[in-house]
Design brief:
With 296 residues, the protein is an alpha+beta fold. The protein has 12 helices and 12 strands.
């Protein structure tokens, strides 16, 4: 299974099932009763198909476990449900990035590989250059992927385009916004912006330290959010595209802008010391160290 197809798979559907099971005795229920409760026959369309698809996706991501006709929350999930706001989305993000669902070779899109490849590609674009639709026009995902990956080659669950059609584009929009890597502007255009995800990852990135060198900071960030600059999933996509090497050796615009936002809100403090190695942002400005800010 992939996360961007079938279209019934939605992060909100996985979260709904998770919260439902968290409220049941023993955090478990039969598959039949879960389906009847969340998708009663009175609903229009095929709600049972929605529940089945999201239950399967959540199981593959390690949020649920199945035993014959019963389904229960996996170990550790209840803690996230009962935790502070955003804890469940943080867990969902971690499960999406887990190596166990991202081990398929290029161009396979099974597991979470389709989503992580799509995020890795999308987050290389500045806001004014990113795709705003799947088809038609210079800023369509179709046109931009043609330039980066060549003509689309699709066979089963394999494709050299991370986002191969409108169904996957719509799914990608939902996942990118839910996981904190994008938002939609008033025109409905998707804006690449990992600020929310980076903010959530800061405690893990700093790991108890108050300060990191810029190089350490970017390296740790890539380890926890591997679709960002230098991350293993970003490098996986870059190894398979036809995009010519960039003359700009700095951070990409989405990550650079996210660091500026986090600095403005004082979640982090970026220092630029003359006697230290520096990392350049997309606008050419540099920083040598990153510190946890007052808001943390």
């Amino acid at each position: 299974m992939a996360l961007l197809n079938p279209p019934e798979i939605r992060p909100s559907g996985i979260v709904l099932i998770t919260r439902y099971l968290a409220c049941q005795r023993g955090q478990q229920d039969t598959v039949e009763r879960l389906g009847a409760t969340l998708a009663p026959a009175s609903l229009p369309g095929d709600p049972q198909s929605d529940v089945t698809a999201n239950l399967r996706a959540g199981t593959e991501l390690g949020l649920f476990s199945r035993d014959d006709d019963k389904v229960r929350l996996a170990d550790g999930v209840l803690t996230a449900v009962e935790g502070e706001a955003g804890a469940l989305i943080t867990l969902l993000r971690r499960r999406v990035f887990d190596d166990s669902v991202n081990n398929a070779p290029w161009p396979s899109q099974v597991g979470a590989r389709d989503l992580t490849s799509a995020l890795s590609w999308f987050l290389t674009f500045a806001a004014g250059e990113a795709p705003i639709r799947q088809e038609a026009g210079p800023r369509s995902a179709e046109t931009l992927q043609l330039a980066d990956f060549g003509p689309r080659q699709q066979e089963g669950e394999s494709s050299n385009w991370p986002i191969g059609n409108s169904t996957r584009w719509n799914g990608f929009r939902r996942w990118a916004c839910t996981l904190g890597f994008a938002w939609a502007n008033p025109k409905g255009h998707l804006i690449p912006d990992p600020t929310v995800a980076v903010r959530d990852a800061l405690p893990d990135v700093f790991g108890g330290a108050n300060e990191l060198t810029a190089q350490e900071f970017v390296k740790h960030l890539a380890q926890h959010l591997p679709i960002l600059d230098g991350g293993r999933y970003r490098e996986f996509v870059a190894d398979n595209w036809k995009r010519p090497p960039s003359e700009n050796r700095g951070l990409t615009a989405p990550l650079s802008d996210a660091l500026e936002r986090l600095s403005s809100e004082k979640s982090i403090v970026l220092d630029d010391r003359a006697d230290a190695a520096r990392v350049a942002k997309a606008d050419g400005s540099t920083f040598s160290h990153a510190r946890i800010g007052a808001s943390e």
